[in-house]
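Person: At home tonight, work slowly through the protein below, taking as long as you need, and write a paragraph about the fold.
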Amino acid sequence: LMECFVEAGLPEGVINLVTGPGAEVGDEIVAHPGTQAIAMTGSSATGKVISTRAGLKPRLMELGGNGPVVVSPDADPV
């Protein structure tokens, strides 16, 4: 998915993908002052922890365990 963003012209570094166990990496990322928004896919338990730590930072969470993304050929590239 990240390769698609770069191929579409989004500069590298605008979106960052970080994977790993929520307890190990999530707390640091959520609490970091440079983190402006959070999007995650994971468990409800991890979502609750992130919501508690995120404060007023915008969040987009898929708590069902998977978050499929479909980009159709006629998608607007802007």
